[in-house]
Every structure is written in structure tokens, then in C-alpha cells.
Amino acid sequence: MISLYFLFPTLLAILISFLFVRAASIALMMTGLDKNKARFQALSAFTGTGFTTKEAESVVNHPQRRKIMRWLMIMGNAGVVTVIVTATSSMSTSQGYLLPLNILILIVGILLIYKLAKYRGFTRKWEHFIEKKLIKSPAFEESATEDLLHFLEGYGLVKKIVLEESPLHGKSLVESKLNEKGILVLGIERDKKWIPTPKATEIIKSGDNLVIYGPLEVLKSKLED
Known about the structure:
about 55% helix; about 220 residues; 8 helices
């Protein structure tokens, strides 16, 4: 029975690893990184695999993203070591029928965690919780904006991600009153699709990347203020 006690820390470490990677991907998204790229880079840094040079450029050249990736690498190494040590200890202390039983419990536990990770309701609640915590942090107050191009006289082009908690979420472009602040929405990146020159009736959704032009001082502030 002693071996069974090592299985629970193993499964717990796997679950915590999943939650941490998902939280880190939300943090990367809040720095202006695309959703799919954020998830891939978070998983790559945590596992230490698939971190390609071309994709990594958008991360290593951004100071805040570098901090997030550094924590992912540290926690990833600690998580992998924990899983290996606890799983190995469980198997090595198993005797007789307990060995196949432990293997079965481990497989079932991993499958349950996988099902949980695929359950949209749970993941969205976790993501909303992380967003609420991070959006209150001064470190992320303006980090959802990514500079694209600067012009003369303080004007520029930026990409700004719309978070779940943003008052812009659910409003049409005309309802957002961005034009009253001298801001022009040139396009919207949404789920790998590009919406050029969106209509005034276009509804802004969570996860949208707004490519906007206007005064940089206004663009880098909270647009909903």
C-alpha cells in the first residue's frame, strides 16, 4: 500500500503542471502574443522541447515574455523531476499484484486529467480566474499591447488583445466609441482569420487582436477608460 501513496503526488504534479502551463499561456497572451503561439511556446518552454529559433524571437526580444518563459523552464524541470521520482518510487516499492494495479491507477489517473484538460467548462473557468488575477497586476496593466509601427508626431500602429474582463468585449466597434478617441481599427485577428477594415457593427470578442492606429499615448492606455 505504501506504493499507492507515491501515485497521488505523481498525478497531482501532472495536474498542477497542466494548470501552470495554461496560466502561463494566458500570461503570454496578455503580452500581445497570439493564442495558439502562446500555448505552443508555454508548452515548449515547460517541456524543454520544440522551442524553435524563429518562433522564439517574438519571446526572447520581449522582456516580460522572457520572465514568463524563465519561470516555465524552472517549473518544468521541477515538475518533470517530481513526476519521475514519485512514479519510479511507486513502481519500485510495488510487489506482487500491486505493480499492475499501480500501473492501471496511473493510466486511469492520466486519462482523467486529460479529459479534465479537454473539458471546456473547467479550462474556461481556470482561464477567467487567471485573467482576473493578472489584469489587476500592475505588471500586466499595459502589457496586452504590442507595438507594430511608429510614425511621426506621436502616432503609431499597435496590436491590442481583448481580454474577457475588458469592457470592449461584447460591444460593437461603434459602441466602443474608439473613434471618439482618435483610434482607427484597421483590422481584427480572430481564430486564425483576418477581418480587414471591420464594419462599425462588428462585435468585439474575447481573444480578438485589434490592429489599431492612433495616438500612441492613447493606444498604450486602457482603451476602455
